Amino acid sequence: MNFSSVRIITDDVDRLVEFYEKVLEVTAERPAPVFAELVVPSCTLAIGHSQTAQLFGTDAVLSAQNRTVIIEFRVDDVEAEYERLKSFVDNWVKEPTMMPWGNRSMLFRDPDGNLLNLFEPVTEEAIKRFRDRH
Question: CA angle at residue 72 from 21 to 22, to 5 degrees?
Answer without folding.
Answer: 15
